[in-house]
Every structure is written in structure tokens, then in C-alpha cells.
Amino acid sequence: ASSAVGRPLVEVAGRSRVVLASESITATRPVIDWYPGHIAKAERLMSEVLSMVDVVVELRDARIPSSTAHPMLTTWIGSRGHVLALNRMDSAPEFALAQWSQAIAGADGPKPVLVDAKKGAGVDELRRAILQEGKYVNERRKRRGINPRPVRAAILGYPNVGKSALINRLVGRRKAKSENRPGVTRGFCWVRIDPQVQLLDSPGIIPAKQVSQRTAYHLAMCDDIGSAAYDTRSVAAALVETLVLAERERPSYVRLGKMRERWGIDPEDCSCGEEYINALAEVRFTGDVQRAATTILKDFRMGMLGKMCLEWPNLEEADGFT
């Protein structure tokens, strides 16, 4: 037998289950190609901006730490100070956060700072990490006979990983524009988070080269790219299949108990994500498939389905994973 989108089925415990691989989930679905003009412009200006910066704060989404890692960031950072933070720590399981922290730190590197920009958790620790990197910068200045000055830092990351919300927390007041919509921060501005630290709020950055479709779909699932770039039903269907795969391979990262309880439908009883959406539409939304797909994405993003992390590191190979 085969599913509606061409993935093979196997019989497990008397019922059909989709045989999933991370790339095959997106192989037959519409391509996501998103690179808006203001992001392209921001990336072209990045080298100029970084010439004014002493410390880079890299912000990733804790639910998809790999997909929100920019492939060029290490090159851009160069010899500058680097602080890595994982936002939305409240949305990912503690075990997953611990394993990712271990993988990112490697044998002897610093662990990422875990933050929740909305609620403020971890923000004080992040501020201390930025200040510490700033001290290293000024110590180097002193050794070169240059007077210390307030350190300039930049927060870099994908469009909706929470940069502006985090800056608002660091500043302690509403300063930068913050809205749960990718790309809302369009220009550059400096904000002071400490007498010794100025922070640059920059637009999110997307690689100039097309990212893999697996990465693009993960970004769409987590609302880290604009909704105009993708088909909601396709992304929702891919999310369902991704969650099934994740629970099977990493049950400490994803558990579907709340999803089953919330809607009364077991995704493993469906041959593919599209079938699950259709079933949900019939049971809950009088056949409205679009509404069912939108609800799946919204509930996942809001944490209504529980704490989940869609990606896991290879700890045997990890050594300062980026």
C-alpha cells in the first residue's frame, strides 16, 4: 500500500504506520523559498554592522536548534565575543535542552544560555554572559593601550526567534518593536542594556543560499518564517508526520499524548499527515480542512500539545555543535 503522498506503509501492531525519514517528509510537498528584500538587504549590510560590534549574541529556537543555526555566522563573528542563547526554553523538554547544551558546548566550550524572552527566564544570566564577554573585549583593549569603552553587542538570529522581545527584557522596558510576526523588525537601532553595554537590534537573517527543505519546513512549523512563504496544509501535514517520527525515535523529545487527548485522533492511525488533517476537519471543524491545518500549527506553536523539540543532536559526533 502507499499513502496519498507517496510514502510507503508498513504494518505495525495490526495497523498502518507511515515509514518516515526526515527528508522524505518534505520530498513530495511544495517547495518553500523565502528570502524577502529587507532580509537580503540586511545580510548585505551585515559586514558593515559587525564592524561596529564587539560581541555577537546568537539567538536560536530551542525547538529547532539546528535549523535556526546560521551557516555563515561563525565566519561573520570572527574574533568577536560570542554568546549563544536558546529561546523558548519553556517550549522544549528539559532532557532535550540538556542534550543540546552538551552537544553545543562540546568537550570544553561554554553551554548556551537558556532563555524565555516572553516570561523573562534566563535573561539575567544572559545579561551577565554579555557583560563577561564585554570585559574580555576591554581587557584586550587595555593590553593594546586603548582606553576601555562601553561594549557594543548585536543579537542575530532568524526572523521570529524572539530577538526584539529579548531586547525588551534586557532593556527592562518596551524599546524595540516586538510582535509575533516574522520580519517585524526592519531597521537597525541601538538600545542600552547596561551602562557598559549597548545592544543593536537587527533584522533576522536567512542564508542567501536556499536552505534544505527539511530546514525550511521546520522553520515554517515553528513560525520562524512568514506564512506567505508556505502552504499551511502542507506544513501542518509535515508537522504531524514529523511528530510521529520524533516520538518513535526520540520519545524524550516528543510525546503525542496531549495531541491524542486534545482531538481524540491518533496520528499513527492515519496513513499520512494529510489524512490526519482531513480526519480532524471532519470531527471538529465541519469539514473545514484549512481551519484544521491552521489549528494544528497554532496549537503546536502555543505549546498546547506539550513541550516538544523537533531535532536532536548526534552526541557521538558533537564537539561544539553549530
TrEMBL record:
GO terms for biological process: mitochondrial translation. Residues 153-212 form the G domain. This is G domain-containing protein. One of its GO terms (molecular function) is GTPase activity. The keyword Metal-binding does not apply. GO terms for cellular component: mitochondrion. GTP binds at N87, R88, M89, D90, G204. NCBIfam families: GTPase_YlqF. Keywords: GTP-binding, Nucleotide-binding. The lineage of its organism: Eukaryota, Sar, Alveolata, Ciliophora, Intramacronucleata.
